[in-house]
Amino acid sequence: MYKIIKTYIAGSNYDNEDGSCRKEILSELLFDCELFIENYYYEQEKAVKILASDNRCVGNIPKELAEEIFDCNEKGKVKTILYRPEYYKNGSVSHFIKIYVRK
Q: How many CB atoms lie within 10 A of CB 79?
């Protein structure tokens, strides 16, 4: 049985340290493609990067969920993360993910 968490991708408007554009990376992804996460610490707090299959960063888990997802990932409970963008008539896109966590 899985708990499903739907959330937005935080920080997708920023560029990566290597100069790559996160929005450009996201534009290359298909609906429901699998993403990966990597735990790290930011200013001594638990944080979680969201990565494309080629290991390029597309953003982060929002701060309010970071500790929960960090702990679940550390325990091997995160099963799958799927990219779920929402497209709007005006051409804008909101970048969301679904995280499947083992209960």
A: 13
pLDDT tens by residue, 26-73: 999 999 999 999 999 999 999 999 999 999 999 999 999 999 999 999
CA nearest neighbour of 9 among 27, 79, 45, 91: 27
Token digits of residue 74: 């550390």
User: How much is the pTM?
Assistant: 0.94
Dihedral sign, Cα of residue 45, residue 82, residue 23, residue 52: positive
Domains of the chain: 2-102 (3.30.70.2330)
Q: How confident is the model at residue 90 (pLDDT cuts 50, 70, 90)?
A: very high
For residue 6, list its beta bridge partners: 98
Distances 25 to 2, 3, 19, 37 between C-alpha atoms, Å:
28, 27, 12, 15
DSSP 48-85: EEEE-TTS-EEEE--HHHHHHHHHHHHTT-EEEEEE--
